[in-house]
C-alpha cells in the first residue's frame, strides 16, 4: 500500500470540512483542498495522507547525525522522509523535499522500512529530513512494526506537534531531537518560517518529557536574523528549568541555503560565545554542531571537567566512560540512554 491512507487524528466539522489535529496549525480543510503542509487532503469529507509509504529519501545514518549524542551512541538508524512540511523556513537545507508540493517518492511500505533497517544492521529508525508530524500515519505504522522487531524509533522534529499527536506516537517513540531556530524568538519564527506562535513547541516538549521520551535540543543560530545571545540565554534557561540540566543542547552553525544564500555562515566566535552562555546557565552538556573537529563536540564531565567522550563529526573517536557510564576520573554518572555500540560507523549509506 502506498500513497493514500485515511488520516489519524482528524475530525469532521460540518459542511464536508475537516480539522487536522496533528500539528498546532490545526488546519480547517474544505473538501478537495490540502492542509498547509501540502500532504493531507480532504477527499469527500475525509482526510487522507497523500504520502503513506512513499519515501522521498532513505539512508542508513549514524545516530550522531540527528544529532543524538546521549542515546545509543555509535548506533545506526534507517532514516526516512516524505515530501512536505508544516514550516516554511527560508534557510531550509532540505527545501527541495520539504517544500515540494507534487507528491513524489519511492514506494516503501512500513514493513519494507523495517526490513531495510535490519538488512543494513541498524538498531533503530529515524523519521527525519522533513517534518515527521506531517507523515504521522507512515511513521506510526512503521514505528509499531519496528518495536516488534526490537528496533528503537526517533523523530527529528520542529516540535510543532499537538498534545494529542505526542500522546499518540509516544508509546512507540524512544527519542526526539527537537529543533529550535533563532533561539525560539517569536518574530524570527513568524518572518523566517511562517510560524504564527512558538508556544506549542514548549508545550510539546513538556508533553514529550512527561511521556518519558529522551529529548535532545538543537538550536540553529542564523547569522544576523537569529543570533541574539539574550534569546539564546532565555532558551537555555527554559530547557534547564523544564527539561533538566542534563538535557543535551546542541548549538548549530547555519550555512547559506535556499532563500538565504547571501547570508554568511555563522561566525565561529558567535557560536563559541553561544556555547559559553548556554553552559553558564547551568546546562551540563552543550555541544557545537556543523563544526567538525571543534572542542565543543566532546562530552566533558560536569563534575571534574574530564573529557569523557571524544568525537569528530559523526564519529566517536574515544570512549572513556566506565562500563556503568561513569566518569573514569571522578565517578560522576554521565546520563547516556541505551547501549554504546563501539566501532559504530560514522558513515552515511544512502539507499535513494
Ligand atoms: S499536519 Fe498539515 S494539515 Fe495537519 S494541521 Fe499541520 S499543516 Fe495542517
Characterise this structure.
- The chain has helices at residues 95-98, 110-119, 136-148, 163-169, 186-193, 199-210, 229-242, 268-280, and strands at 3-6, 10-14, 17-20, 28-29, 40-43, 46-52, 54-55, 57-62, 76-81, 106-107, 124-127, 152-157, 175-181, 214-221, 249-253, 286-289, 299-300, 307-312, 315-319, 349-350.
- By secondary structure, it is an alpha/beta fold.
- The chain has 2 domains: 3-49, no CATH class; 54-350, Alpha-Beta Barrel (TIM Barrel).
- A 9-stranded mixed sheet has the order 16-15-14-13-12-11-9-8-20. Strands 1-6-5 form a 3-stranded antiparallel sheet, with no helix packed on it.
- A hairpin with a 2-residue loop joins β2 and β3 (17-20).
- It starts with a strand and ends with a strand.
- Iron/sulfur cluster is lined by residues 20, 22-23, 25-27, 35-37, 40, 86, 133-134.
Instruction: List the bound ligands.
Output: iron/sulfur cluster
Quickly count the domains: 2
Name the CATH class of the largest domain.
Alpha Beta
- What is the helix/strand order? EEEEEEEEEHEHEHEHEHHEHEHEEEEE
Distance between the termini: 19 Å
The portion of residues forming beta strands comes to: 25-35%
Level-2 CATH architecture of the largest domain: Alpha-Beta Barrel
Can you give the mean pLDDT?
Answer: 96
Q: Enumerate how many helices there are, as a single number.
A: 8
- The side-by-side strand order for the widest beta sheet comes to 16-15-14-13-12-11-9-8-20
Helix content: 10-25%
- What's the name of the CATH homologous superfamily of the largest domain? Aldolase class I
Query: What do we call the CATH topology of the largest domain?
Result: TIM Barrel
Sum up the overall morphology in one term: globular
Unreliable stretches covering 5 or more consecutive residues = none
